[in-house]
Design a protein that fits this description.
Blueprint lengths: L1 H22 L28 H7 L4 H7 L9 H17 L18 H46 L1
């Protein structure tokens, strides 16, 4: 009991000290930063470093710089992964049959409600995942169509 009270007292002191120390900090962890920038805006003072290259070497990229410089992955799900998933599902359904894993004196039916519920769950979740994965393609197509329509409208207005 005494030990847990000592640990609790230590933790409370530590939290209090950390909160007092955090009050002294500025908005940024880097004391050389003189201006605050929003997402996607480049800092004119290189975040307190002499050059942009020095900032990248010592600090690395900002979050928005990493996001904009990453390649967009367009690779589909590998066939071996789908095959592995199918094999696991077949084994899982097979293990529900009464000839595997029976305990003496306990008989199981060949069919129960778990099989169609499991299949419905897998199909439903697969459709949701496919929708979320394919959603960016749908949005990109809509954006491209909107851009083409705007270009055609501008071209038609220039002709008139």
């Amino acid at each position: 009991m005494e030990r847990s009270c000592a640990i609790t007292a230590f933790c409370n002191r530590w939290v209090k000290n950390m909160s007092e120390n955090n009050k002294d900090l500025k908005d940024s962890d880097n004391p050389g930063v003189t201006q605050k920038t929003d997402w996607g805006e480049e800092s004119t003072d290189n975040y307190g470093y002499e050059t942009d290259q020095e900032r990248r070497d010592k600090r690395g990229l900002e979050d928005w710089e990493m996001v904009t410089s990453m390649e967009k992955s367009e690779v589909s799900i590998p066939y071996w992964f789908i095959a592995l998933f199918a094999v696991l599902l077949i084994v899982a359904v097979g293990l529900t049959f009464p000839f595997w894993g029976n305990r003496p004196g306990f008989e199981r039916p060949w069919y129960d409600d778990g099989i169609p519920l499991g299949i419905a769950w897998v199909v439903g979740m697969s459709l949701i995942i496919y929708y979320f994965v394919d959603l960016r393609h749908i949005l990109a197509k809509k954006k491209e169509a909107k851009k083409q329509k705007a270009e055609e409208d501008a071209k038609n207005n220039n002709e008139n």
